[in-house]
Amino acid sequence: MRVQPQDIEGARRLLAEAGFPQGFRITLTTPNDRFPNDSRIAQAVAQAWTRAGVQTTVDALPWASFAGRSARQEFAIRLTSWGSVTAEGIYMLANIMQTNNPQRRTGSSNSGRFPSPELDALTDRAASTIDNAEREAIIQEATRSGWQPMRRSCPSSSSRTPGPRAGG
User: Where are the domains positioned within the chain?
Assistant: First the structure.
């Protein structure tokens, strides 16, 4: 997936079209002890949004406070991270991007509760596909499908893989 170029004037135009010509205020809540530079990343996001017309303040909380409140949907918007125990895209699709449906156990971390029947169908199809190449192609299509309408923001990527220490 390509990084989209920043378009501050375009963002301001979209805000005006949506009825917010003067922008609006929002608080971005983030953990401050969960992943590398979490508070700094949140500050950088807040500065970018503020330049675009969304006056953003950051509320950085210890993970012990953040996690429960986040699960209860107490934040207007949050900065968080996600890891995969499988290292396969289906894990992210089923938990973050699929429609929240407790009965099906999908979308538990879809905090915006954004529904997408197309994404749901693609993810279900990928989950039931045995051929690895075909499955990967469906996962990639589903990922593109899910990211486009939501325009989710990924300012940073961090990979930490546990392994044995040198010498022991």
Answer: 17-81, 83-150
